Amino acid sequence: MTESIIINTNVLLFDLDGTLVDSTAAVEKTWENQVNQHNQEFPDKFIDLPTLLNVSHGSRTIETFTAYFPELKADRDSVYAWEMGIVQNYGHLGKAINGSVQTLETLNEKNIPWAIVTSANPDLAAFWLDKLFHGVKKPDVFITASDVSKGKPDPEGYCTAFERLKKVYNLDGSSKGVVFEDAPAGIKAGVNGGFTVVGIASTFPKEVLLQAGATYVVEDFTKVKINQSGETVQLVLEIL
């Protein structure tokens, strides 16, 4: 059963993988291959795949490498090469989250401030946008793993994007932001930054997203309607 609620805000901040892009199958297949290889080579240091997936979604790859795969090189080039393997091997599995293309087109048409804040590297993020959002103007602010010193759940990425958008659109200090996220790490980043967080139930169930701190949860972007009055953006959500 759903109910409708209204949020008034000024800025919209979006995660990419799992939020705008349904890349879960591609990402999880890549992690599954890595875990299987690790467990064969290091049976005394067994990694449980479901446990790893729970923490890897929304986190930067370099942090997952450091925590679980000490045998892997965690320098920038090695991590980038591993991430690009996701799309080289399984890019065909990716698809746009329902309603996401139309949502971004609406934001551009109405000149509403929005940004992407992703834990992916710039090339991986660009691949998904070019493949699935062809023709959609990219946002004025685009934060990737290369732009932050600390990944989610640290709020650095979202706070940086918010401040940059305020400057680009000349918004005052009372401006508010809403974060859209699909994973606990990203939701915590939004909460830690002081934002209202809307969970997208594409990767994790509603209960997990609410437990992580999401204010509301929606099925996808077909459940999000956008209205505008001056600098105020009104979101009408059909929440789960």
Automatic annotation (TrEMBL):
<keyword id="KW-0378">Hydrolase</keyword>
<dbReference type="InterPro" id="IPR023214">
    <property type="entry name" value="HAD_sf"/>
</dbReference>
<dbReference type="Pfam" id="PF00702">
    <property type="entry name" value="Hydrolase"/>
</dbReference>
<dbReference type="InterPro" id="IPR006439">
    <property type="entry name" value="HAD-SF_hydro_IA"/>
</dbReference>
<dbReference type="InterPro" id="IPR051806">
    <property type="entry name" value="HAD-like_SPP"/>
</dbReference>
<protein>
    <submittedName>
        <fullName>2-deoxyglucose-6-phosphate phosphatase, putative</fullName>
        <ecNumber>3.1.3.68</ecNumber>
    </submittedName>
</protein>
<dbReference type="InterPro" id="IPR036412">
    <property type="entry name" value="HAD-like_sf"/>
</dbReference>
<dbReference type="InterPro" id="IPR023198">
    <property type="entry name" value="PGP-like_dom2"/>
</dbReference>
<dbReference type="GO" id="GO:0003850">
    <property type="term" value="F:2-deoxyglucose-6-phosphatase activity"/>
</dbReference>
